[in-house]
Specification:
- The structure is a single chain.
- With 448 residues, this protein is mainly β.
- 4% of the residues lie in helices and 36% in strands.
- The strands form six sheets. It has a seven-stranded mixed sheet with strand order 1-11-10-3-8-7-6, with no helix packed on it. A seven-stranded mixed sheet has the order 14-26-25-16-23-22-21, with no helix packed on it.
- A hairpin with a 4-residue loop joins strand 6 and strand 7.
- The longest helix has 8 residues.
- The relative contact order is 0.14.
Length: 448
């Protein structure tokens, strides 16, 4: 049996994947969405639930709960047309009872079964912030094959939130509360009360002419993904979250205090150099290249960056940053127990490079970041989500550089999987150069 943690993935075959929902407590409905290359459903026919149990001539099928087991979705990846990039499995609470949330659901898991392969199981972490729907699993194309990824992304606004993110029109009671289906439905002939979401928050149906497409991906080691951004869009916010569950009970007992850091180079100072951003270099590396902005480069320093070794600034628990002035980056707080710390980034037009790092306090003892279940999730609030997992079981390491967000791309931002560790026992912070390269064990030492 393969157990997936949130954000992790595993290969699957091309035929006969049965995903079974299991839970204790309040009932949970299971549905599926077929997603195209633009990150949206192609039409209402791409929604699969018990009132619309098949799509693509049976390539995706809903099976009701019964004596044979819980509610299931059966996917035949090889039977899906090329226009379908992924299938999302969605869990939701009773749409007719808005008091029901996932806080009333215990031991929620999805078991993916396939002939000739070990079962793949995602034990969904508890959702206690009022979530009424969640994207649980993603079955997606990877090269010529397929993979399955544990998502666990909750929505407090229920199926309406899921619908908004994946291009389903919710204006006519299509997502929750009007059909009793537990899944988004086609518009009714006589609409009832509309879902309380502003029209501007509901994306239009995807168009081939649209320059911005949504990305949902879990990066492999060394891989990168790009998010399309209109950098002048008012209110645009990128959220990078460090999530960790502490791993096993024994691991949590030893200590599980991780700290999230953002090392940043502003656009006014960033260089595009001959060495690719995100490359690990030696501490003596001398950045070279073309300034991102005319007159920019090393001579132009933000207040925070001017004080920092290597020229990059830092946002962390002792300097939470700001969203209203330089650096337009803020840490939402310091969690000393397993959970989540979030870094919010606005004004992408003012950003050059942002390196997302984590520090493990000495008090945690020996153990890898992977053993904490640590990973980073980057989202744009417009439906794109990039998960950056950790693959190495590196013990006695206090620092890990997890991902680089490269805002020097003209049409958006590239998220690069880095996963570079400090030397054994080293407390020195990573160093981000102004050309986006990274030197480990080269920054300052600062004890919590």
């Amino acid at each position: 049996m393969t157990i997936l943690t949130k954000g992790a993935n595993a290969p699957v075959g091309g035929t006969g994947i049965t995903a079974e929902l299991r839970s204790v407590g309040d009932p949970v409905d299971l549905s599926a969405l077929l997603i195209g290359a633009d990150g949206n459903v192609r039409s209402d026919a791409d929604m699969v639930f018990f009132n619309q149990p098949t799509a693509e001539a049976g390539a995706v099928t809903h099976v009701a709960a019964g004596a044979g087991g819980g509610e299931r979705i059966v996917v035949e990846p090889s039977a899906l047309p090329a226009s379908v990039e992924s299938v999302l499995l969605v869990g939701s609470c009773d749409p007719d009872d808005t008091s029901r949330t996932f806080s009333g659901v215990k031991e929620l898991s999805v078991h993916a079964l396939e002939d000739g392969r070990e079962p793949v199981v995602f034990e969904v972490p508890p959702m206690t912030d009022g979530e009424r729907a969640a994207v649980l699993l993603q079955i997606y194309r990877r090269g010529t094959g397929w993979k399955i990824r544990a998502v666990g992304q909750g929505y407090a606004d229920g199926l309406a939130g899921v619908a908004t993110d994946f291009g389903i029109d919710v204006a006519d009671d299509t997502a929750e509360g009007g059909t009793g289906t537990g899944a988004p439905a086609a518009p009714a002939a006589t609409p009832s009360a509309p879902v309380p979401a502003p029209a501007a928050a509901v994306p239009p149906a995807a168009s081939a002419a649209s320059p911005f497409t949504k990305v949902t991906i879990s990066l492999e080691k060394g891989e990168q993904a790009s998010i399309s951004l209109n950098k002048q869009e008012p209110g645009l916010e990128i959220v990078a979250a460090l999530e960790w569950d502490g791993g096993s009970d024994s691991r949590r007992e030893k200590g599980a205090d991780l700290d999230f850091y953002a090392l940043f180079v502003p656009a006014s100072k960033a260089l595009r150099g001959p060495v690719a951003a995100g490359t690990i270099v030696k501490a003596a590396h001398k950045p070279e290249g073309t300034a991102l902005r005319p007159g920019g480069g090393p001579a132009v320093l933000s207040k925070r960056a001017a004080k920092a070794k290597g020229g990059a600034g830092v946002v962390y628990y002792r300097d939470l940053g700001s969203l209203t002035q330089d650096p337009y980056i803020v840490l939402d707080g310091d969690s000393r127990v397993p959970g989540r710390e979030a870094i919010r980034i606005v004004r992408p037009d003012e950003q050059g490079y942002v390196l997302l790092c984590a520090y493990s306090a000495v008090e945690n003892g020996v153990g890898s970041f992977q053993s904490f279940g640590a990973h980073v999730v980057v989202s744009d609030g417009r439906g794109s989500t990039v998960t950056v997992p950790l693959f190495e079981d590196a013990s006695t390491r206090y620092w890990v550089a997890i991902a680089l967000v490269d805002f020097t791309e003209p049409a958006g931002a590239a998220i690069r999987h880095v996963e570079a560790y400090s030397g054994p026992g080293s407390e020195a912070r990573p160093l981000l150069h102004i050309d986006g390269t990274i030197a480990m064990d080269a920054g300052p030492v600062e004890f919590k």
